[in-house]
Amino acid sequence: MARVLVVCTGNVCRSPIAEGLLRAAFLERLGDGAPEVGSAGTMGWEGSGADPNSIAAAAERGADISGHVARALSTAVPASADLVLAMSSEHALAVVREAPEAAARTFTLKELVRLVEALPSPAAGEDLRARVEAADALRGGGFEGNPHDLDVADPLGMPLQSFRAVAWELEEWCGRLADGLVGRAPARAGLAEEG
Q1: Per-residue model confidence (pLDDT) at position 187
Q2: 159, exposed or middle or buried, with CB in 10 Å at 0-12, 13-18, 19+?
Q3: CA 182 – CA 107 distance, rounded (Å)
Q4: Which listed residue, of 56, 78, 148, 159, carries a Cα 20 to 30 Å from 100's Cα?
Q5: CATH number (domain holding residue 70)
Q6: Which entry of 61, 129, 136, 154 is annotated as an active-site residue?
Q7: What is the mean pLDDT of residues 174-193?
């Protein structure tokens, strides 16, 4: 089973939300075959729960992260992940410093979305690892995407409304990423009948 690691700073705001939303997106598309999704922080507040505003904002988007326990990047073993998703370019650099062998599998969330959307649609049953390799090859070939929009803002210390905005943004990007890596979710019966 493929392993995905999501990384931010403290592992209490952005990465737990992204972890929950990405897990849900993969489950919707792949069911029991969904990749394992975890998260960590470059300065992980080891043992802390997710920020209460992160929990509330994620719940509003359908993800339960109330049981989240923060961990440090050094304990998350990024080198063993098939994909490492950073919330910012700063986090991606920290991952590569920690685990240089993971460089080809480390991207910011927005960077990888733009890369996989530039590739042909995934073939039925195509392996996530193959899509990550293709995205890295495209990146190595000079594809820049939008180098001025790579980061997801950190809502730490902000009001709930800021966490809601981040959760909304993450839901959009995680859904697009799942589509680009493993294909679109099957149409729901009710929606298919209306169309």
Answers
A1: 63
A2: exposed
A3: 17
A4: 148
A5: 3.40.50.2300
A6: 154
A7: 76
Domain count, the chain: 1
Phi and psi dihedrals of 83, rounded to 5? Answer: -155, 130
What per-residue confidence (pLDDT) applies to 147?
87
Is 154 among the residues known to form the active site? yes
Residue 186 has pLDDT above 90, yes or no: no
**Whole-angstrom distance, CA of residue 160 vs CA of residue 9:** 19
Q: Is 13 a catalytic residue?
A: no
| Six token digits for residue 79 | 């080198």
Residue 138 lies in a domain: yes
Q: Is residue 194 part of a domain?
A: no
Look-up: residue for tokens 């990384």?
7
C-alpha distance across the termini of the chain, in Å? 34
Mean pLDDT of 99-112: 97
**pLDDT tens-digit profile of 44-101?**
789 999 999 999 999 999 999 999 999 999 888 888 999 999 999 999 999 999 999 9
d(CA 115, CA 184) in angstroms, rounded, equals: 16
Of 14, 23, 114, 139, catalytic:
14
Q: Which residue has the tokens 């929990």?
A: 55
Host domain of residue 71? 3-121+130-185
Residue of 47, 43, 103 lying closest to 73 (CA atoms): 43
